[in-house]
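note to self: dont lose this again. the chain is below, predicted strucutre after it. 70 aa total, dont forget to put it in the shared folder this time
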Amino acid sequence: MAKIMIESAITGNAYKDSNPNIAYSPEDIANDAIATGKAGAALIHFHVRDPDTGKWVHGIDYYSEVFKTT
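---
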């Protein structure tokens, strides 16, 4: 049997208006990362978002919160 690697892209490109399960807050992103890791994902791909608007942000503070929680 061939070996496979499962990647989880947890924040996707959608917003809550089209998918209410999209994580916005660093805590929710971290919780999704932990859950998908426990489910077998070997790689977690995510972008942080502004917790209030859901827009992508590039601030190190948001990424730090995700990493600290995981």
